[in-house]
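Progress against Task 2.4 (sequence-to-structure conversion) is shown through the following example record, which the project officer requested during the mid-term review.
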Amino acid sequence: MPAARPRLLYVTDLAYQARGRRYCDEDIHLASRLRDHFDLALCHPLDAAALMDGFDAVVVRNSGPVLGYQREYDAFRARALGTGTRVYNPLTGKADMAGKQYLLDLTAAGYPVIPTVDRAEDADRLPSAEQYVVKPKLGADSLGLRVVPAGRLAGLTAGDVLIQPRVDFAYEVSFYFVDDDFQYALYAPDPGRRWELEPYAATAADLEFARRFIDWNDLGHGIQRVDACRTPDGGLLLVELEDLNPYLSLEALPEEARDAFVTAFTASLSRFVQGALSPA
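Structure tokens generated for the chain above:
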């Protein structure tokens, strides 16, 4: 008899409404391709904790911002860690998976990131600006983000928000990795249309920039997206390191590049699941 195929629980919210994107299309496409290699079932993120014991690994994809179901997500994490369930991306991520504290840590460590503080009284550590971007530490997908004039910073509540100068930039660009391997880059030529993306030819300097954050996160397996902005002086600053459930914008890629990504993703998942099936 043929050997049993690995079983994956693929976590996605097919009904999630995102501005400028259709998460469901991406996951329908990926799931249809993965079924060639795995026994696969889709489930809503609220059902993952109850269902995951019957699978060799759990793949968290377009599950939406966990801010909307933080208690259930925390329970899922605790159960997965407690039972040793293999979750892809692994739950050791230090970036968006753990909130926005990493932006403070990377600022303090001197990484090329948009300068960030979490107290209004520390705003003097930031470059002077007429306006500042304020966002929740546990935010995602621009939820709760607002622009505040410099004169209103003093009224902010300390500890639960991040404060950054509003940066002028030429465009935003994202670099996509599977495990430690760069796959493709996309950018938004018009800063006012963040999700109208086009393929971007990354330079060696661009990839050196992006890899600094991939190396820092040291995730080992999984999909990561390094979001950056191109400043007027030509440099790059990190906007976000998405290591939980990054949207991939596969629809913006030509077919050959999309197929290459799926091949890399499938190979990564195969290696990941074999770690669960191999004897200790």
